[in-house]
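Section 5: illustrative case.
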C-alpha cells in the first residue's frame, strides 16, 4: 500500500492510496483536499486509512483547520473515517444532501451534519462549492457530487472509475478505462438516472474531473461525461 499527494488544480490536492490487492490490477482510493479559508475534504477514506490520509493533509495544513467533511455517498471508502476527522477537527461539520442526512448521517455522524438542497452553494472564502444531487448515479439514492465554481473542478465520486494505478492527472481519454472497470466490478445502477445525471453534469463544462478511483482528468470534461453517458445508454439499450 502506498499513499501520495498531488496538486491537481490550484490548492486542490489529490491524496491517493493504491491497494494492489483490490481487483485484478489494484485500485486507488482518493481523497481531495480543497485548501481555502474554510478547508474542505471530499472523501474520508476507510477508518484504516485515517493515519496515512491525515498525515498527508498535515503536510499541507493542520488537520484541525478542516471546516467541511464531504463525500459522494455513504460507503466505507467514502466516509468510514468521518468521525475520526470530526474528532481531529473540532470546528468541522459534515455536509451532505437531504436524503443522505435523513437516512444515515444524522445518526452516524458524531456532530449533526448540514443538510444541503440540490444546487446549494457553500462559500469557502475565495472558493464556491455547489452541491448537486445525483440519485442512483452511479449508485445509492443519496449519491451526489460537488462542483467548485472558481476552478471548474467537478468532484465526481465513483463516476469514471478506473482500475490500476495511473497518473494523478491525465488528459488521456478515460471512458474506455471506465468501461473496463464497469465490466470487472459492475458497480453502476444501470438505469436511466445514470446517463441523465452525466449529461446534466456535462452542462457545467468542468475543466477537471476529480475521480474517486483512478486518475483525475484535465481537459474537456463535458465531452468526457457525455461520452460516458453514451456508453451507459448503449448498455441500457442492448
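Designed sequence:
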Amino acid at each position: 500500500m502506498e499513499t501520495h499527494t498531488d496538486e491537481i488544480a490550484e490548492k486542490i490536492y489529490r491524496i491517493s492510496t493504491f491497494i494492489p490487492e483490490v481487483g485484478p490490477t489494484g485500485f486507488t482510493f482518493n481523497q481531495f483536499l480543497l485548501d481555502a479559508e474554510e478547508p474542505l475534504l471530499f472523501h474520508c477514506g476507510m477508518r484504516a486509512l485515517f493515519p496515512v490520509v491525515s498525515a498527508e493533509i498535515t503536510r499541507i495544513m493542520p488537520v484541525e483547520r478542516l471546516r467541511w467533511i464531504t463525500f459522494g455517498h455513504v460507503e466505507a471508502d467514502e466516509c468510514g473515517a468521518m468521525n475520526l476527522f470530526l474528532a481531529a477537527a473540532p470546528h468541522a461539520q459534515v455536509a451532505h444532501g437531504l436524503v443522505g442526512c435523513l437516512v444515515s448521517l444524522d445518526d452516524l455522524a458524531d456532530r449533526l451534519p448540514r443538510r444541503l438542497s440540490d444546487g446549494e452553494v457553500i462559500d469557502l472564502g475565495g472558493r464556491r462549492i455547489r452541491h448537486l444531487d445525483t440519485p442512483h448515479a452511479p449508485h445509492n439514492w443519496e449519491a451526489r457530487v460537488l462542483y467548485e465554481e472558481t476552478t471548474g473542478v467537478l468532484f465526481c465520486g465513483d463516476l469514471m472509475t478506473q482500475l490500476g494505478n495511473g497518473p494523478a492527472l491525465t488528459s488521456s481519454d478515460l471512458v474506455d478505462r471506465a468501461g473496463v472497470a464497469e465490466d470487472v466490478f459492475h458497480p453502476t445502477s444501470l438505469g436511466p438516472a445514470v446517463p441523465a445525471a452525466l449529461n446534466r453534469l456535462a452542462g457545467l463544462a468542468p475543466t477537471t474531473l476529480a475521480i474517486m478511483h483512478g486518475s483525475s482528468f484535465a481537459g474537456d470534461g463535458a465531452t468526457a461525461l457525455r461520452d460516458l453517458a453514451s456508453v451507459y445508454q448503449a448498455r441500457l439499450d442492448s
